[in-house]
Amino acid sequence: MSRKLPASQAVEPEGVTASAEDLLSILDSLDAAVYASDMQTHELLFLNAYGRQTWGAPRGRKCWEVLQEGQSGPCDFCTNDRLLDAQGRPGAPVVWEFQNTQNGRWYQCRDQAIAWHDGRLVRVEIATDITERKALEDALKASHRHAEWLAYRDELTQLLNRRAFFAACQERLATLDPEAPFALLLIDLDRFKLVNDTHGHAAGDRVLREVAKRFQARLRDGDILCRFGGEEFALALPGTSQAAASELAERLRRALSAQPMNYGEASFRVTASFGVVAAASGEADLGMLLQRADQAMYRAKREGRDRVCDSP
């Protein structure tokens, strides 16, 4: 049986002079769907012109049969249980958003339980199409995510930038055992200015992207690679000893020098100088490690380039 309110709660307010036809005209003029459905049987009792044009006439069907697709019973997102208070009386309106399963469009819905003319409780919903607003919101969110991503990435190589490198290293250091080793490499491409001067800056950009690609192919998931600036790269190796880091640096060095770079019809060899340092994680100071790795890297430059030098 349908639940009904006492007659004293179902009477019309004083001073209402609009006819039923006037009210229907008002509802049919709205640029939003308005419907009423029995809260127990789910029979669709009323659907305004906007709703009929979108979903068709009720014809005695249930609300979920008219307004949704693929439903064999009441919708699992139905708000009926949220519209009544603990005593089963109409409560505050519920405003929510959802994507309609029939037409795929987004709606902001305002649902409220009211007493129908015969005293039974019905759910009245006003559903406003917000598809364009949702699309704009999604675009803004995507733009924000992209901007955040760019703030931590080198645009050319898509590697971490210097700021993100320091943050990632500090975060990783905080999780390592204090006795675990933490190695750091500074890598500077040799005579990179000559590439730009001879083949143009587009060739230089191609080289930087290819260097990043070759390095990434030889690293573990937990290794932290960044473009430190210009033609310089930094690589942090959590949990890696200085000896193991030097061996990896040698493999990276060979990965560059053994295979020429190609740009257009030009083919040229690219080499790099490596500085390697390591310390126990509990004692690791990034600024000091970078300074020592930088000194080792410039020693590699002085000793002829295309080599790996360890910090003492």
Automatic annotation (TrEMBL):
Listed InterPro entries: Diguanylate_Cyclase, GGDEF_dom, Nucleotide_cyclase, PAS-like_dom_sf, Rev_trsase/Diguanyl_cyclase
Superkingdom: Bacteria
Enzyme Commission code(s) on record: 2.7.7.65
Cofactor(s), names only, from the UniProt record: Mg(2+)
CDD domains assigned: GGDEF
Annotated GGDEF domain residues: 180-312
Molecular functions (GO terms): diguanylate cyclase activity
Catalytic activity: 2 GTP = 3',3'-c-di-GMP + 2 diphosphate
Pfam families: GGDEF (PF00990)
NCBIfam families (UniProt xref): GGDEF (TIGR00254)
Full protein name: diguanylate cyclase
Native source species: Bisbaumannia pacifica
